[in-house]
Write a structure and sequence with these properties.
Order of helices and strands: EHEEEEEEEEEEEEEE
Number of helices: 1
Number of strands: 15
Helix content: under 10%
Low-confidence stretches: none
Length: about 240
């Protein structure tokens, strides 16, 4: 597949000096699927090659707004795996994962100076694309003890991520592993075709983690970097009632 994407209006407004150009993507994929009566396995390899991808480099415009800059070469490549299995009449399991590399060949980081000196320019090569973990995995393990009742554990793992494109450990998000619990029960009634009562327990084990954030570096006598993270809620609950007519 081949795709092209024009810069957004905001890219043109924020960066009138270095006019951004369109991004180009070439994607090659190959997959394999194996199915049996109670099992399913899928594997998909992909390589996404970018020309002139727009990324944040730390550069700002004349009013301090961050601007995206075209980088000549970058890519995402990896393999996606899925596996599902019925474990008898009362148990089901489905797992999925992605293992990938997400790299920018080379780019120039700009650290803005606020002390009257020149901006700091740093050169980088083969760095990780921001917010692109190398490992993402999840799944669902379901227990069906009664007709209409389903109890499922939903684990999720997200690997280490970087807040910017420099692959700096001081500007990164730790890997995290969280579990959710879901309980569904279907009632048969004369009024509705189906009535489903659901309970979802998010972050079952009250894990402390931050899946997102941002970073900002500037020079004032010395280079200062500030990281801002978005901590997620501890254990929390959601209930739902679904009516089908």
């Amino acid at each position: 597949a081949v795709g092209n994407k024009e810069p957004s209006r905001q890219d043109f407004v924020d960066n009138p000096v270095n006019t951004p150009i369109a991004e180009n993507l070439q994607d090659i994929e190959a997959g394999f699927r194996f199915m049996k009566k109670d099992q399913l396995f899928e594997a998909n390899f992909y390589h996404m090659n970018y020309n002139d991808q727009l990324v944040l480099t730390g550069a700002v415009n004349d009013v301090g707004e961050p601007v995206r800059i075209n980088v000549p070469k970058s890519f995402r490549t990896g393999i996606e795996l899925q596996y599902g299995m019925n474990l008898g009449k009362m148990w089901q399991m489905a797992l999925n994962s992605t293992f990938s590399m997400n790299k920018i060949d080379s780019f120039e980081e700009t650290i803005v100076s606020y002390d009257g000196s020149n901006n700091v320019e740093n050169s980088f090569s083969q760095t990780d694309i921001s917010f692109s973990p190398n490992i993402v995995a999840g799944g669902v393990i379901s227990f069906l003890p009664l007709r209409g009742l389903e109890i499922s554990l939903l684990p999720k793992y997200v690997g280490k991520q970087y807040l910017d494109n420099t692959s700096s450990d001081s500007r990164s998000l730790d890997a995290f592993f969280v579990n959710n619990l879901r309980v569904n029960y279907d009632f048969n009634t004369r009024i509705f075709k189906k009535l489903t009562l659901s309970l979802l327990v998010n972050n079952l084990f009250n894990t402390e983690y931050e899946p997102n954030g941002y970073t900002y570096s500037y020079k004032f006598d010395s280079v200062i970097t500030e990281n801002f993270l978005y901590p997620q809620a501890g254990i929390n609950f959601l209930t739902a009632l679904k009516l089908r007519f």
